[in-house]
Design goal:
- By secondary structure, the protein is mainly α.
- The chain has a single domain, classed as Ferritin.
- About 80% of the residues lie in helices and about 0% in strands.
- The chain is elongated, with a radius of gyration of 20 Å.
- The N and C termini lie far apart (about 75 Å).
Amino acid sequence: MSAPTSTRTSHRASATPATARGGRGLLMLLPFVLAVAVVSGVGGLAASSSRETYAALDLPPYAPPSWVFGPVWGVLYVMIAIAGWLAWRSGGGRPAVTVWAVQLVLNLAWTPLFFAWELRGVALVEIVALLVAVVATIVVFARTSKAAAWLLVPYLAWVGFATALNAGVVVLN
């Protein structure tokens, strides 16, 4: 009879450490959402004339219409926030949050480089760094949360496509 009780006790103890550590719950998703919202907002300000700029560029044949970018980034930003929170919540700690923050800063830097300052070659170098940072983030996240890592795979695919698009713009313009 004591074995089931100790199993039940150890199960209860293992089921509550996140709560016991104080706030690894849903409320702690908020800082991740706010960080991504800031990146999205600053990017939006830097790209205020992006539709006109994009339309004026010589684009490669695989370039999507400009209206595609907003909805795609909206979904990706939600996934990036949730992935960061899941990795942190699962015990990824400082390494997970640091690599997540680095990729987010690189994400933030691309839009002003490409649209506001029209430094498309520099933006290409920067987006390659972002691509590497996203891969690194997925690798670090996979150590503690497979779900967090998988949530970033569409982001990786989109950044890879955006890298090809950026390269095409550099070549054609």
